[in-house]
Amino acid sequence: MRDPVTAYVALGANLGDALQTVLLALDALAMLPGTRVTGRSRLYRTAPYEAQGPDFINAVAQIETRLSAPALLDALQALEQLAGRQRPYVNAPRTLDLDLLIYGQASMSSPRLTLPHPRWHERAFVLRPLADLAPGWVTAEDWARVADQTIGVLPEPPP
User: Which end of the chain is more exposed for a tag (fewer CB within 10 A), N or C?
Assistant: First the structure.
């Protein structure tokens, strides 16, 4: 059996009950085979960035997984489908968006999966929650790059 790998998954939603969808997706990550959630960022509200529609609810989860990166991507996309994700056009509003940001020390580029995620350092909705869990990944240059992007921390929902 494969050794566990630490991975980071960005979660976002801006259709329907986005907050509830993100919270349910965090729970669903823990149910993936060979996977456990080892950390969760605070929840954030962000204006759409290079997208349309209402504000997004965003978070990042830190997981330990025995799934390969492609198998984890498949599992994330299956969770998106269960949440009713449709892709009518690029950056369309979404019921759930799950992005595999970092998978251990993996560096890869294929038509289907690029690791680390190619645009994670350009988006405040990824940097802020990622910094909650892994501040060493985020540099001063990254913060400067997203200084004009609005992001707010949400109060924690009751358990």
Answer: C
Residue 158 lies in a domain: no
pTM: 0.92
Question: Is 42 a residue of the active site?
Answer: no
In the chain the first and final C-alpha atoms are separated, in Å, by: 34
The answer to whether 132 touches 60, Cβ cutoff 8 Å, is yes
Residue range 24-73, pLDDT digits in tens = 999 999 999 999 999 999 999 998 877 778 999 999 999 999 999 999 99
- Count of domains observed in the chain: 1
Which residue out of 40, 97, 123, 132 is catalytically annotated? Answer: 97
- The catalytic position among 36, 66, 74, 99 is 99
Element (H, E) at 118: none
Q: Which of 94, 123, 128, 142 is catalytic?
A: 94
SS (H, E, C) 70-93: HHHHHHHHHHHHHCCCCCCCCCCC
Verify whether residue 36 is a known catalytic residue: no
Looking at 36, 66, 85, 145, which residue is catalytic? 85
pLDDT digits (tens, 9 = 90+) for 131-155: 999 999 999 999 999 999 989 999 8
Q: In terms of residue numbers, what domain contains 59?
A: 5-151
